[in-house]
# Entry
Amino acid sequence: MVEEQKIKQELEGNFSFLKEKVNVIRERRISVEVPLASFREVFDYAVNKLGFSSMSAITGLDEADNLVVIYHINKNGSIVLSIKVIISHQSPAVQTVTNYFSNADIFEREIMDLLGIKVENLAPGQRYPLTDDWPKDEFPLRKDWHLQRIEDKEAENE
Amino acid sequence: MNNPGDVKIPIGPQHPALKEPESFLLTLRGEKITSVNIKIGYNHRGIEKACEDRTYIQDLYLIERICGICSHSHSTCFVQAVEEIAGLEIPRRAKYLRTFIAELERIHSHLLWLGVAGHEIGFDTLLMYTWRDREIVMDLLAAITGNRVNYGINTIGGVRRDINAGHIDASLKAMDILEERTKYYVGIAQEEITLKKRLSGVGKLSYDDALRLGAVGPTARASGVARDVRKNDPYAAYTEIDFDLITDDHCDVYGRTVVRLKELLQAYKIVREVLKNLPDGPITVKAPRKIPAGEAVSRYEAPRGEDLHYVKSNGTEKPDRVKVRAPTLANIQAVSHMLEDGYLADMPIVVAAIDPCFSCTDRMISMHNCGTRKEEIVSWEFVHAKGIEWYRNKGIDFSQLNKKLHSMMNK
# Structure
């Protein structure tokens, strides 16, 4: 895991706030939690200086107290770096990364639809994956969301 | 830029033939596609949310049903993540058996794709023969796992069924038959000028665009991108198996055909090696019902490309989050790019080139002529037949090749 350790050292060396925050989970798996305010510079460094030149996916999740966005980027199809940012329920927003990876578009629309996380500066486009008539402000991957909410709303409308 | 002569063609989304309904809005100028707008998500079933309310074992069977063709891909990708969080080291024999089923799945998927590709260009004899050959693998899978699809072979900690000497013997014989036939199809792809002319230059995707758009699997490898999770991030028994990573530099549908054909030959080789070196021992280790808190990213080379699962556990018997990124989603931007500046007649084969299940029953297209405001409904078969006829008028006719293949197969 020489290369993984080197990546850890470079990240921790360049960003003092990442000291002991970079976790080499196993061979070809690294994760790091980054403060939202510093996400851009760390992401830029990983892409342009460390060679993480492809995006595999973006995962959004609800950890009850916070929302989390994880960017899974890879180096030459091999090492996966998962960059995690924690955002508040009160103002859930991140900046788009489509200026780095155009294929991030569909993943960002997914976290918008399913978790209600606003993606700033994302070009206008169709929603994904929910239906066009899906009710506003209903985000099914939030932990407090249950199907009953939609059924209750439908019953009210009837 | 739109002009009054442009014709917009919406295709889908209610498309019974597709496993994953999609909506394509094509804008045509004459025969050329000037822009493509793809909308997906019509088949979103809330599986990720449903996983949070079920146990890991229940999820395994749910996850397996994400896709009918690559069911083993999803179940293996998921179970690998769970095993990593739980710190389970599965037995070597289980790793080999997972690899064995994985390659059988790749063989039937690639043969299915080859038939679909043949059909979309009017080479229906190829469809008939490749789908006949595919039945050999489907019968093997049914004999080994009990099912033609959704094999239910995986469990947390290993596999549920072992194989016996009869399965090994039948599998090795099947590989010999399939290898001989696949070599013949490789010969057709390399020598038949009709096939080469029809597929070359169609659905172009450059190396740079494949990387930029995040293409995966044979779609990316046919553009020279040497990426395959089995090599770049090996799992199961791939760390111990010798095989070649197949790439091609044609960057078109012809290249995607060549890559899949050569990957078939590699799959036969892998199956033989797995069966030859199959270790003795148990096929499973005991897994805890409650998975300790943690998270893992698992990757798997499905027949269509990289599959990625993220699993987060919270120490209970149900996961906190399951995220699935299937290969088709990764390839969707590349399809849009491939269609642009191409001909309408090439649309069926370009779309089929990334989706091996774009083949089945009824298809319907609504054509809206922006100039005349006239709208008409035509069938998918209409566009399919139009594409074949359009190329026939340009001198690319598969009638003779259909007869030739049939006569050679029956010598």
